[in-house]
């Protein structure tokens, strides 16, 4: 009887097997840089960027749904599909933008972990060395499924920020008032709009999810479950982003409006003092550490997968390191190089916001390739068609165009 009660039907087993890549990539989306960008938004503009976080939920889902559809139906990664559809030159061009985004992302993740170490008075170089060593050991000795489970476990600590926002007791009337006062003509506001766009729709997310569903062995039969996986992840990641913005707007933004943040300990100390000493410090550290760890793993994997799809080397966590030396070598090189840069000392807040703005400037390239592949590379039953084709096209043009415009406008006016 006990065995029968604990047994799982084949259908449920299939559903559980298909879950993971969408939730994981979305947890990685709410990385250290994204959290810092949301915090900076709340500190400088209160709740005036909150509506953007909610508006991005359907846009994020739309983008990543095309990504997993391309992966599951064609059986090829994003870089490989660009190479086969548009040629090797365009594939290398696309991967070069991916590597630019990955380098910036890796540095911001490890910088976030360095900021947590500083909050507790720990040595930054030693902390980074230990973290890099542990991640290398996990990836070099694990399969895709084991790495996915561990990364999701770390990423769930991001939900701590939801508790922080709840404890901040934001005033709903104040939120409603500020939502009607968005200063769309202010270049500094537009700069953070671009940063938030780049913090939510990142080039490496598209490459990662398309490769991850393949490495996990999913097929077109898993498409329905994978869509739910992605939808749940899109809601979770934007709830976390909104929670960080609300928590900082209700604390730092309320007490000292228009005050820019300078480092991670400043964010942590403000929230810690509001939540209470040791408990607040642990809550903040858990959220930031979870966000940075899951994104570090995902971004390094994305870089190794993306280059491999164009270069043609073996690229799977199911391969032993000696069977896929280039894959594991590039993963390790990205991680170690990021650690060296962070150990040298950088301004995390300025760097993180600038990286997210760079992501926004890359959106025309990233979303352009994605949309064209959805039109050209998919077989007829799965291809974009009808009204939805035009809806997606308009969303891509508006999102990419506005992100590029806001980033340029903000940067040219010295934001």
Write the layout of secondary structure elements.
Blueprint (H helix, E strand, L loop, with lengths): L1 H5 L3 H9 L2 H9 L2 H14 L4 H25 L3 H9 L1 H32 L4 H18 L2 H12 L4 H8 L4 H8 L7 H14 L2 H13 L7 H28 L1 H4 L8 H12 L1 H35 L13 H19 L4 H14 L1 H14 L9 H27 L3
Overview of the structural elements:
The protein has 415 residues and is mainly α. The protein has one domain (17-412): Amino acid/polyamine transporter I (Up-down Bundle), CATH 1.20.1740.10. Helix content is 79%, strand content 0%. The chain is built from 21 helices and no strands. The protein has helices at 2-6, 10-18, 21-29, 32-45, 50-74, 78-86, 88-119, 124-141, 144-155, 160-167, 172-179, 187-200, 203-215, 223-250, 252-255, 264-275, 277-311, 325-343, 348-361, 363-376, 386-412. α3 packs across α9 (144-155) and α12 (187-200) crosses α21 (386-412). It starts with a helix and ends with a helix. Residues 1-6 have low confidence and may be disordered.
């Amino acid at each position: 009887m006990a065995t029968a009660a604990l047994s799982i039907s084949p259908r449920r087993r299939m559903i559980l097997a298909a879950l993971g890549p969408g939730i994981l990539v979305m947890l990685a989306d709410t990385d250290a840089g994204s959290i810092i960008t949301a915090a900076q938004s709340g500190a400088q503009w209160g709740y005036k960027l909150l509506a953007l976080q909610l508006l991005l939920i359907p846009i994020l889902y739309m983008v990543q749904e095309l990504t997993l559809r391309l992966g599951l139906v064609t059986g090829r990664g994003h870089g490989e599909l660009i190479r086969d559809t548009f040629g090797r030159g365009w594939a290398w061009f696309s991967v070069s933008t991916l590597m630019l985004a990955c380098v910036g992302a890796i540095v911001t993740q490890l910088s976030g972990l360095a900021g947590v170490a500083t909050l507790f008075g720990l040595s930054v170089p030693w902390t980074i060395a230990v973290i890099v060593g542990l991640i290398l050991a996990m990836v070099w000795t694990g399969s895709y499924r084991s790495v996915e489970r561990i990364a999701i476990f770390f990423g769930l600590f991001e939900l701590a920020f939801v508790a922080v926002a709840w404890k901040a007791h934001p005033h709903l009337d104040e939120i409603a008032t500020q939502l009607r006062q968005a200063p769309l003509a202010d270049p500094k506001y537009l700069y953070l709009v671009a940063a938030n766009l780049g913090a939510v729709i990142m080039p490496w997310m598209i490459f990662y999810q398309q490769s991850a569903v393949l490495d996990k062995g999913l097929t077109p039969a898993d498409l329905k479950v994978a869509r739910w996986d992605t939808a749940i992840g899109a809601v979770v990641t934007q709830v976390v982003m909104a929670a960080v913005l609300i928590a900082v707007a209700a604390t730092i933004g309320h007490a000292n409006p228009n005050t820019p943040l300078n480092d991670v300990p400043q964010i942590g100390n403000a929230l810690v003092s509001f939540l209470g000493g040791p408990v607040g410090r642990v809550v903040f550290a858990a959220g930031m550490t979870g966000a940075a760890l899951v994104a570090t793993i995902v971004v390094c994997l994305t870089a190794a997968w993306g280059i491999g799809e164009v270069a043609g080397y073996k690229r799977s966590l199911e391969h032993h390191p000696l069977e896929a030396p280039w894959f594991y070598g590039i993963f390790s090189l990205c991680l170690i190089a990021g650690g060296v840069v962070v150990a040298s000392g950088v301004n995390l807040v300025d760097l993180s916001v600038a990286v997210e703005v760079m992501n926004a400037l890359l959106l025309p390239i990233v979303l352009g390739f994605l949309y064209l592949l959805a039109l050209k590379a998919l077989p007829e039953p799965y291809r974009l068609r009808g009204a939805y084709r035009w809806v997606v096209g308009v969303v891509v043009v508006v999102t990419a165009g506005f992100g590029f415009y806001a980033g340029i406008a903000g940067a040219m006016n010295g934001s």
